Structures are given as structure tokens and as C-alpha cells.
Amino acid sequence: MKKCIFALAVLMLTACSEPANSADVLAESSPSAVSAPAAKSTATPEPTAAPTATPSPTPSATPTPNPTATPAPTPAATPEPTPEPTAAPVAEAAPEQVSMSYGALPFDLAAGTEQWWSIDSSDSAYWAVQENINALRVAGGLAPLTMDSGLSAAADARCESFVAGGPFDHSGMTTRSEICAAGPLGSASTICTGWQGSPAHYANIMEPSFTSMGVGCWFCQTAEGQYTYWTVTFQ
Q1: pLDDT tens by residue, 130-151
Q2: pTM across the whole model
Q3: Quick one: which of 43, 80, 180, 214 could link to 233 by a disulfide (CB 3.0–4.6 Å)?
Q4: Three-state DSSP class for 151?
Q5: No. of H helices and E strands in the chain?
Q6: pLDDT value of position 31
Q7: 3-state secondary structure of 181
Q8: DSSP of 8-66
């Protein structure tokens, strides 16, 4: 365990109807004028010709109704198509749950100091991170990683850069790969469980070509709460 000279920094984390037409309105007919009676004639009347018989009208032939076309037979109903069963989506297998080593950070040493502290190989949290990562790899059929002091120094430097206000991203990475975290993450089991549940971080842990790793963590405790930065580097 080593004490650091940095004062506490603020942590930052790295979607109607129309009227009728006049042509359609029937006008009333005016009554016809009555003719005056004709004067009486004294002349001998001419003989009246025999009336010519009006021929009876020829009866109209009864109209023959047009033959009704024979209706076409109603086609048989098309059977409803039988839906093909859709295969259920295959869910991505969740990483196997493993027993995690706790590895608590010694916040009691940092309490009331308002300063950042960091872990090293003398702290249980340092080795617990390695144990937990190797437990995940072995559960997935991969070889465990050895702890490398040079990779741990690089991980420690990455945490220091975050505390100093550097960008919380991977722009300053100096190793082949790394995973980082920030927040009130007070133990190795807490941080490794979080990485296990994150697909991107878990993929880094489960990279088959990695052979070694390093661990770094800076932490601080104030009246407002606990703060941590974690980094694991890989080679």
C-alpha cells in the first residue's frame, strides 16, 4: 500500500342538400279558356258519312325475358396456410458464474485523509483480481494468466492519469489491451463481477492469446463517499 499526494478529484465517467334546379320544378298549368257556344244553323245538314271502324290494335307480343345466365359455381374456399414454426432466437450464453475472491480495498487507511491511495502486491485486493480473472478464464476453458510487475506498473500509471484529470478512455493505453472502471467499487469481487457482466470487458478477459496481466487501483474516501479507479492490463 502506498499513500499518494493527489487531493481528491471529481470523478467523471467515460438514442346539405343543394336547392332543386329550376328545370326540375313543375310549374302549375293555367286553366284553358272556355269556348263560346256556336250559333244555331238553319241549313240542311249534310249526310254524315258512316264511320269507318277503327281497327283493333294488334296485341303486343309478350316480351320474352332474357334468359338468366347460369351462375358460375362458387369456388371452394382457399384453405388457410399453415404457419411454419419460427425457430426461437438463440440467446447468447451468459458467462458461467464462478466463485469470486472478495479482496476488499483498505478504505480505513484512506478515511479522513482526503487523499488518494493505491494498492500493490502487498494488498489482498491485488491478488484477488488475478484469482477472479483466472477463475473466469478457466471456467471458459482458457489458460490462466500470470501476474506481471511491469504490466501492473502500467495499470497503476493509468489509474494515476485518471486521478490527475486525464481522459477516462483508452487513448493513453501503453499495453496490448486493458479494461478500466470507475466508481464506488470497493472490492475485487465487485469489480470483476461487473466486468464479467459487460460483453466488451468479458471478451477482453477471455482473449485466448493473452498470457499475462497486471493490476492497478487508486482509491479515496471522503465524507461524501468512496471513489475508485481500476485498471487491468493484458499482454
Answers
A1: 999 999 999 999 999 999 999 9
A2: 0.63
A3: 214
A4: helix
A5: 5, 6
A6: 31
A7: strand
A8: P--------PPPPPGGGSPPPPPPPPPPPPPPPP-SPPPPPPPPPPPPPPPPPPPPPPP
